[in-house]
Design brief:
By secondary structure, the protein is α+β, with helices and mostly antiparallel strands. It is 35% helix and 18% strand.
Length: 606
């Protein structure tokens, strides 16, 4: 039997091998336990996808002055499973909530989901959010979504600028991922019309968060992040300072004013009164302020520029003259009598005192009702037309060319078409073949069933100023800071009226301002041509109306003004129009006394 020569040496090797095995087993156990701990820690950490909402594109006026900018707000979310250390009193104080309201919101979040974030409160200001983060760092479970609401450096133009509000569940479901809970979307005006340009494209970042929902780090150094795309900045056609000036004229008044550059269709200013500070619908109290405005008695949210439908009054005589001239049922030298009214119809419509008899230019200058009643009657009853109904439809076709009774396609939503009855309307009212020019004679002076928006009235002035065409009125000029600035194109519409007929009508309009019913609007060297109107109102005092353009030979501005319950066109609408035209063309006001009177005299109780 073999025996080792050195038993002590053998024992040494046994101990060495045994120790090595123990060390290896210990190390393996350590690695296994460490791996389990690492796995447990990794399971506690998760990757969260966080939306990154880009800043909305800003809006600038026609001179590229910043008008509508962004201001950050936060939607605050709560994930119930991650909540710890919640100090109800402190948080409710910071967020300006009652403790009971906060507890209710927390309970509602728990009922909705323990693991999904629930919207706790909307539109938290930057100051409040910073305070919450500063004083509540031990409290977990909160997360925030930054929003870019609006700030208005010129607090005017609310009706066409529009406002933002939160997307609805239906909008989220149909947006194909474009919108999610808490996102803001353009709800009216230009914000809605150009949402696709202004909103940009949201991005995502992926972050590692611990079991308490606290952000630890960017996931894989941001390799999977999707950067947001900022919205486009837009330059508008409106002059912000002219808009401010025009709005200031409507103190204590209800109505609308629209000014357009005839050669381009660019809207220079658009006032709907009463108006409101657009900053009211941006921020923490947007819901409260919207409800307050929505229930106000004078309807400040109602855009009278494109939705108010008014009888055009005597301004409508210009169109009747142009149509009759084109159809050769009227010649400029023709004279019609006026005996304080239209005698062929028993003195109706009545007329005011003026010199006479008058030809067409004089009838425009002095706004003779009897003259234009004769023009309308002789057109509808002219032998060239087989029946009155045929003549009426011919007349109506011309009106449609002028943009009466149809939407012009302005680039803000909710435009109304006005009203231009078909012959079938009169058939229903009076019976087939039982009506004629005398039945609907009020159409001759803009007091019948025809209704127009102030935008349509101003657009008619573009047609006359351009001697026969207009470009669709619009608010968007171009995209700021891009080589290819034009993003949309607007149609040019020509009316089938010969140019010489416009010259006749323009001469009457020039004289109406220089020595006629619109003399209150006269400013030397302004070249304003216009027409006053007094639109009968079945609900109260007549509306004051004026339309015009300037200068007559190279028009730069076309304008329409309606002042509800303002009486004669010369009382309010005409002087207001002339002040805006003078401000735009000359940059100064030569009649400070008139300006003071208009700005400081209300028509309604304050």
């Amino acid at each position: 039997m073999f025996e080792p020569k050195n038993p002590q040496r053998r024992l040494h090797w046994i101990l060495l091998v045994s120790g090595t095995v123990v060390l290896l087993i210990g190390r393996l156990a350590q690695l296994q336990l460490g791996s389990l701990e690492g796995r447990r820690q990794a399971e506690m950490n998760t990757v969260r996808r966080v939306e990154v909402i880009p800043p909305r594109g800003v809006l600038r006026d026609r001179k590229e002055r910043l008008w509508v900018s962004n201001i950050p707000f936060f939607n605050l979310f709560l994930t119930p499973k991650e909540v710890s250390g919640l100090d109800t009193l402190q948080v409710s104080h910071i967020l300006n909530l009652s403790p009971a309201s906060l507890r209710l919101k927390v309970e509602q979040a728990r009922q909705f989901s323990l693991i999904k974030p629930s919207l706790l409160i909307r539109y938290v200001s930057l100051n409040r959010y910073a305070t919450l983060m500063e004083r509540s760092w031990r409290q977990t479970g909160f997360s925030a979504q930054v929003l870019h609401s609006r700030q208005y450096l010129y607090p005017v133009g609310a009706h066409f600028l529009g406002y933002l509000s939160e997307v609805t569940p239906q909008e989220i479901s149909t947006s194909e991922g474009r919108y999610s809970l808490g996102n803001l979307v353009g709800r009216s005006g230009l914000e809605r019309q150009y949402e696709h340009l202004l909103a940009g494209r949201k991005g995502y970042r992926f972050v590692v968060v611990d079991a308490m929902g606290r952000e630890l780090s960017s996931y894989q150094d941001g390799k999977h992040d999707i950067p947001p795309l900022r919205g486009a900045d837009l330059v508008l056609t409106v002059d912000a300072e002219l808009q401010q000036f025009a709005e200031s004229l409507f103190y204590g008044k209800v109505g609308a004013l629209v000014a357009i550059e005839p050669s381009t269709g660019e809207i220079l200013c658009a006032v709907s009164a009463p108006t409101y500070d657009p900053n009211l619908l941006s921020g923490e109290e947007v819901g409260f302020q919207w409800q307050k405005l929505n229930t106000a008695s004078r309807l400040p949210l109602y855009n009278r520029v494109i939705q108010g439908m008014y009888p055009p009054g005597s301004t409508f005589k210009l169109l009747n003259a142009l149509i009759a001239l084109q159809e050769s049922t009227l010649a400029p030298p023709m004279i019609y009598p006026c005996m304080m009214g239209y005698m062929r119809n028993g003195g109706k419509p009545a007329c005011h005192a003026h010199t006479g008899p008058l030809s067409l230019v004089g009838a425009i200058q002095h706004s003779c009702n009897a003259y234009f009643a004769s023009v309308y009657t002789d057109f509808l009853h002219h032998p060239r037309y087989e029946k009155v109904e045929v003549a009426y439809e011919r007349w109506r076709d011309y009106m449609l060319y002028f943009g009466v009774g149809r939407r012009l396609g302005v680039d803000i939503p909710s435009e109304k078409p006005g009203n231009l009855p078909r012959k079938t309307y009169y058939d229903r009212i009076y019976g087939r073949h039982r009506w004629n020019a005398y039945t609907i004679i009020s159409n001759s002076i803009g007091q019948g069933e025809v209704l127009m928006t102030p935008l349509q009235m101003a657009n008619i002035m573009c047609v006359i100023a351009n001697r026969g065409y207009y470009i669709q009125p619009h608010f968007l000029r171009y995209v700021y800071g891009q080589p290819h600035k034009q993003v949309t194109y607007f149609d040019t519409i020509r009316v089938p009226i010969q140019a010489e007929h416009f010259e006749t009508v323009i001469e009457g309009m020039r004289l109406a301002v220089e020595a006629g019913t619109g003399y209150v609007a006269y400013v030397p060297d302004l070249g304003l041509c216009g027409k006053t109107g007094t639109a009968q109102n079945p609900h109260g005092a007549d509306h004051s109306v004026f339309v015009g353009f300037a200068p007559w030979d190279n028009p730069k501005i076309a304008i329409a003004v309606v002042v509800e319950n303002g009486g004669w066109g010369a009382s309010w609408a005409a002087p207001m129009a002339s002040l805006v035209a003078e401000k735009y063309l000359k940059g100064t006001i030569s009649r400070p006394h008139l300006l003071k009177h208009i700005k400081e005299t209300p028509l309604l109780p304050q």
